[in-house]
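Quick start: read one record
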Amino acid sequence: MNKTVLITGASRGIGRAAAIAFAKENYRVVINYFRSVDSAQELLCALKAEGHRVMAVQADISKKEDVLRMIKEIKDVFGSVDILVNNAGISQQKLFTDTTEEDWDSLFDHNVKGCYYCSQAVLGDMIANQRGKIINISSIWGICGASCEAAYSASKAAVIGLTKALAKELGPSNIQVNCVAPGVIDTEMNRSLDEQTLHALCDQTPLCRLGSPEDIASAILFLADEKANFITGQVFSPNGGFLI
């Protein structure tokens, strides 16, 4: 049976790579996007041209009404969501002393509350079906923290805590909840860093390179597979040895 995967923030970066990887494995893929309309539509058309079953839904995952509408649209086309990848999020580099309440709230709204809204929205069907997978995307900074990224690190640490708690709560319903905490990845989010900083990050990585979105997509795809049915509550961190 072909399963339906919803990937939030799937128009770019890790989410885009994951959408392509799932499509190639014959999943029904839902591309969620918010502002990146052109990128989402380009990906949608490319995957459809290859014969894949895919749809795109615009929704701000930090808004409950958007999430509920999105899930309804998905159910009307593909039925219930079998796999949820909570990938959408934002980052910010700022001294903690300069971080405003608005900065803090925005990071937690997108990085944590989005996971909360989307997970709650799909869990009714998952529990009724006694199967399902939720894969949350955190960051190595959620594990060890990063200077000048206190709010971002705190939000990503919250995602890890949510993952572990939900895994315990949903295990009796045969629902696996895991987390992928990428290292430094070559995505648009990190291209704002200057060349010197990127070189330094490569030097600190034993594999001597930044990760690719495809590296992370492979980890997500593995956790979604039935081969990973006995894995839950875990934090996978593909980081090239940056954090050991």
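Helices lie at 13-24, 37-49, 64-77, 101-129, 140-144, 150-170, 195-203, 213-224.
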